Amino acid sequence: MLVAFAVGGLWKSEGGKLVTEGDGFSNSLTQYDDFSSGPFFDTDTMEPFGFTMNSFDATYERTGPQKGTPRTFRANITYFTGADGTPHKKSIEVNTPLDIAGNKVYLLSHGYAPVVTVKDGRGKVVYHGAVPFLPQDPKNFTSSGVVKVPGAQTKDGQRNQLGFQALFVPTFGGKNSGSMFSQFPAPDFPVLSVNAWHGDLGLDSGLPQNVYQLDTKRLKQYKDASGDIFKKMLLPKDRAAQMLGHAGAELTPQQLDAESTMTLPNGAGSITFEGIKTWASFKIAHQPGNGLALTGAVCALLGLAGSLFIQRRRVWVRAERPADGVTMVEMAGLGRSESARVAEELATLAAALTPSAPLAAAPSRTPRTIPPRPPKNRRSLPTLPILLIPPKERARESRCRSQRDTGSQQQCVGVFGDGRLHPRLPRPHGRVGVRQPQQGRPDRRRTDHPGRRARRGPRPDQAAGRHRRPGTAQGRHPVHHRQP
Hints:
Helix content: 10-25%
Low-confidence stretches: 384-436, 463-481
């Protein structure tokens, strides 16, 4: 998967393209509106393909609390691949990309493109086509755009570049209010509001400009006789009769032109709102590492499933050849998960090895001494041997003391001569307690008697080393040991 991510990042490419209804796209670098690629991507090796957007279908919820919610976004295209250019029809929807020659074509967004016709002062058509407008209101598609006409002239033949700023609403909702806003995203009652500029558009300077904005530094705005901004609301020419005729009005061709055309002052030209087209924005992405990443992900899932459902085992086999010359093979197993079949599986494996390695005779074993169990409700104490004294002798009780000067410990246990344990000694488990001496003071407790509680700290008569007996450490009695 890491290799797939590296390949996808180094050889990837992606770009965006806005296509108006009836227009097309070809997979070349100059056709993209924006383009980015990895450091190893070669633009000369781009796959030859293209497509044309025939139409765009969009439906919206018209009633209820979700009024205006989009229900269908579908771009109907005709695409071709390779040198033969055989056309194929296909539809692209949101989250349903089209795979063309190893490239994914995604549908991102859509909008409206009013179709306008511009005439200059000579009455000559200097511009005709659909102009994409960008939505300012993503819910109801109130959109704005500009129209730039650098080849316009006055009626005297003088150069007079024209620029138009416009606001488009698919369903006009500002009747008798003087404002422009849309109340529904579908083009039920489209209206285009236009104001005009003239002068120098700055296109000849060689500097790049935004096609959706108008640079008004060297332009003058047209004004009416009263000095107000010259603007007008236009209806689409192909639907004006239907829109106004629905209210019972009968319009003549001159009236239709008056509703859909704005004539500039002093005969400088005109602009006509012919109709509406839709545009769609596409993303073309090339990801060469997707297949490799998918393969790595599937392998990782299979490995994870195997680790969960396959029981892991560890088996050790050790072969030794002692002095008798017979090779001794020992086996042991360990389950990595809780399972009661480890012993059974190990036995099956041993049985499979029996023909080539028969079982050896069991060696003689000496009884193993099992250590006595410690007493309950007591601290774990070290185990000490029990010294047996001949029956004819008597042993008095031995004591275990800590020498202050050396810090060493001596451990011993006394018994009666007849082999019976001393009544005050521990049970036959043979354990007695030895307390670790603390630094700075000797151990004053008796540890060979579990029934007596040891005193804590030195006795008052032996504090500060007083009343010492000659030949002893810190005035303590010497420790006597009885040898068997």
